[in-house]
Amino acid sequence: MSHNCLTSVHNVEWLPSLVTLDLSANQISRLESNNSLISLRALKLSENKLDAFDATPFSAVSLLYLDQNSLTNISGLAHCHNLEVLSLREQALPSADSAVDIDLGSVKDIRKVFMSSNKLSPACLSPSSPLLRLQLLDLASCTLNALPVEFAANYPNLKVLNLNFNSITELEPLVGMNCLARLMVVNNRLSRMRRVCQILSRLGRTGRGSACSLRKLDMRGNPLTVGFYPPAVTGNGTNAEQKKLKDQEKALVRKQQQGSRRDLSDALADIDGPSPLDQEISWDDGAKTDREVEINDPFTLPPANPQADERYLTRLDKATRLRRSVLELLLYAGTSGSLHHLDGLDLRPSLGEDSPDMERAWTKLEELGVLRRKAITNKP
Can you give the pLDDT at residue 262? Predict the structure, then answer.
């Protein structure tokens, strides 16, 4: 029943066997039920006009999508013992002083949380109890200047963390995340290369000398990576703008032809299940599978173009190329070679004599006493 201009829905309790209810993209301001819907597993209410929501009657849901409403809180979450995925992106808050204020500690078994493009209260980042099962946390574009000191202790088993488009200057609160496989900190305020590399080398490890779990890292758009990569748009932008308009027109046509479509959160919040549609798209959390496709997510950056990057490197000044090579070597060494993707590109630093850039980087780091090539490469 999505995309139908509905303003109200009543008597959903008369459908006790209902498993999925999709009311997204309507004009609904309230959804209530006099009885619990014990069979309901997926409830989709994105793009409505909700300013209050009580999850108590829907305590059996495992997927709850509430993006693009006007919610600052959700009551009854403590009753949702089966909740695995919660998406609460882009709430239209009533005032500049308002903030999304949710204690995720009341849903201890939740696996994935999407809260991008919201102003968040301290309770959202510091739940009342640690979320030991949480694997994915999306906090992009949330006006964050810093993370709480106890951040890692509250989310110790995260595999994917999206902190893109904030103003974070320090990553030390992430130390203690021993399972982290993918970290996104695009367009933040990271500027101290040595400091950042030291902290990243401590992530994804269960103990000293243990293997590192970190596989993907994206730090594009930070002060420490300025000038490292070609710009995303070249020319006067006209062609890119025309392509964007054409893509929007095509998307509108597809929506009209297909009717109800899976919203972005639905695609990103894929959980294991028997439905082929549920398994069609997932948000990469480390190892990439054959069924994964790229998702047009406004809170992540697409992969970089390796050919364009190669051309850009040939024209890049020597000092900047050296800094980029040093960063790559520090990250490669710090993660014991586990890091496979850096800033949208495959990370395959040449540790031998073939690459002049890497040779200069090795020499510089050895002169400074930062790295010893023999310790990394096991060369005599």
Answer: 44
> Quick one: tokens of 306?
């390796």
Long-range CB contact pairs, 270-273, < 8 A, 24+: 271/62, 271/63, 271/84, 271/85, 271/111, 271/112
Q: Which amino acid is at 66?
A: L
359: three-class secondary structure by DSSP: helix
- The pairing of strands 182-184 and 160-162 is parallel
**Strand pairing report for 345-346 and 63-65:** unpaired
Based on the number of CB atoms within 10 Å of its own CB, is 200 exposed (0-12), middle (13-18) or buried (19 or more)? buried
As a 3-state breakdown, the chain gives helix, strand, coil percent values, each rounded to 5, of: 30, 10, 65
210-232 pLDDT, tens digit per residue, is: 788 999 999 999 999 999 999 87
The answer on pLDDT for 78 being more than 90 is yes
Report the predicted TM-score, pTM, of the whole model to 2 decimal places.
0.82
Dihedral sign for Cα atoms in the order 335, 341, 284, 292: negative
Q: Is 344 left (phi over 0), alpha (psi -120 to 50) or beta?
A: left
- Angstrom distance (rounded) from CA 221 to CA 251: 29
**CB-CB neighbours of 110 under 10 Å:** 25
Give the list of residues 6+ apart from residue 165 with CB closer than 8 angstroms, or none: 140, 141, 186, 187, 188, 299
